[in-house]
Every structure is written in structure tokens, then in C-alpha cells.
Amino acid sequence: MTHRITTLLTAEHLRRSLAEDARTGLSSSPKWLPPKYFYDRRGSELFEEITRLPEYYPTRTERALLTEHAREIAEASGAEVLLELGSGSSEKTRLLLDALTQAGQLTTYVPVDVSASALTQAMDALAEERPGLALHGVVADFDQHLAQLPSPGRRLIALLGSTLGNYDRPGRERFLQSVAAAMQPGEGLLLGLDLVKDPGQLVAAYDDAAGVTAEFNLNALHVLNQSLGADFDTDGFRHLALWNADEERIEMRLVAQDSTRVELRELDLVIKFDEGEELLTELSCKFRRTSAARELTDAGFRNLRWWTDPEEAYALVLAKH
Ligand code: AVJ
């Protein structure tokens, strides 16, 4: 079967957008960086490790929900193509691929990721496992390339892992509207959403005992060192995960342990951190059923279906356009 990769986001293009975002974010007060740059080879590996941590319940809860409901989802979607945004290792995707195959109409899987290394690795494994499935991988940034993604048949577009939570509310509105604009009538959107719950459990999921999330967070600085010739001393920063109760989100930050000065050679930029100053590296918004449904219908989605686990820790939502 055909097996190919389209690159909409080249390494150079990614580096340029990192340069732009880093210049803006590090010159702002408070300082911030967008989380998509976590996922270089090392970052993608660390994220896979996070998904296996005992404290990180989202992955296994989502997997259990997919195991239980993939059939219904496949049938309701009527999809010929599974297009997955932020596909990473495509590990949980297999449950959907199986169900769509059994529903009888799947022809093509389109994994989309910013990480070329994660994408190639996932596709090699899938090509071997499923010789009958056409694979069309796309290296892309779904903040930029939604309208250019392949559409070789009626699609189910999946955004799993609660990746939607990386956007704040205005960001989600923009994102959902551009997904809707890129969809044909009758196509489906499947979202995995992490739900609001006990803050202790939430914080533990982002501050694990083994320190993997801390390493993942600090990897953002390695990415800046490597791609932009920065000279961050990663030992000089500490990982912080906190629950922002007003915004109902986890925020990951890096805290400067001393006042320090960092040079970003490629940007011709020097930035200063005060002792204790924080750099915001990731938002992970948590959802509630009513407001999530509202955001989807506001963006033009309809026929919402909702599945959750008995503890209501996590949800899958299927919506039609
Ligand atoms: C991939 C964005 C959904 O927010 O839970 C995990 C990333 N960051 N631990 C999340 C992440 C720290 C993850 N998302």
C-alpha cells in the first residue's frame, strides 16, 4: 500500500517560527514559550515516557475509553480516512484504526505531527503491521496548515490526549473555527479532553515523583540552546507545575534559581531573569462538559456525543460538522 510523507513544515520553517515565538515570548513580561517546541526527538521520547507514568492518568483513561467505545465512534463517524492531529507515536490510534477497519470503510490513515522523527517512527511500525492500509503522513503545524491537509475521502479528524488543552480559550475558539472551516459536511471531529478534578491529582500528573515531567519541561531550554544558539544553563532552572483555579488549568513553568543572563546568539538577543522569575512553558486547560459542548457548538459543530469513565476523569467527544 502507498506509504508517503508530505512535509508542510520543514526543519528550517520550524526553526524560523521558533525564532519568532521565542523573541516575542522571552521579551514579554511574564516570559512565555509555546509548548509545540517541546517535541524535538528527545522531547517526543520524554513525552512517551510521561504517558506511562503512574501519576499521568490521561493516557490510560483515554485508552480505556477508546477500547470501550471505538466501535460506536467508528460507526457514528462513517469515515474512510482517519486524520490524526498531533499523532506522536500513534499508539492509541490503533484502537480507532481497528474499529474503522471493522466498520468496513477505512482506506487511509493520515498522521499529522510537528515531529518528523516521531512521525517516521510511527509510520514505519504501522506500515509493517497493516500492509493493507494506505498511510499518508504529514509533517505540519496545525496552527498553520489545517487547510492544506489531505482529504482522500470522508474524514474523522482526531485530536487526542487533551492536546486541545494547550490552547487558552481564545486560542481554542480560533483553532476550532479553522478546523470547522477545513472540514467537509458530514466529517467528524473526535476530541480527547481531560476534565476538571481534584487539584492534587492534577498537579501530581504534571509533577511526577520520577522527575520525567521536570526533564520534559527543561528540554524546552535544550531546544532553544540547540536551535537558536542559546546558552541556558538548565541546572539553573526548576520545574514548577501549578493549578490555576481561576482559569481551571495546569501551568508549567520554569523558575530561575538565581538572577541570570542568557544570550540567544541566532536572535542577537540577550535576556535577563531575576532570581525566582518564571518562564511559562505550557498551559494544560481542563474541561467541563457544558462549557466544552458550548465551545464546539459555537464553532459550528453539531450532533455531539460524549463518553466518559466512571470517575469522570476524562472524556471523548465526537462532533459532526
Ligand atoms: C500533550 C499537551 C496533552 O498537557 O497533558 C504532559 C503534555 N505536558 N505533561 C498535557 C504534557 C506535561 C500534554 N498534552
TrEMBL record:
It holds the Pfam family Methyltransf_33. One of its GO terms (biological process) is methylation. Keywords: Methyltransferase, Transferase. Its EC number is 2.1.1.44. Signal peptide: none annotated. GO terms for molecular function: L-histidine N(alpha)-methyltransferase activity. InterPro entries: EgtD (IPR035094), EgtD_Methyltrsf_superfamily (IPR051128), MeTrfase_dom (IPR019257), MeTrfase_EgtD-like (IPR017804), SAM-dependent_MTases_sf (IPR029063). Residues 19-320 form the Histidine-specific methyltransferase SAM-dependent domain. PANTHER family: ERGOTHIONEINE BIOSYNTHESIS PROTEIN 1. This is L-histidine N-alpha-methyltransferase. It comes from Nocardioides albus.
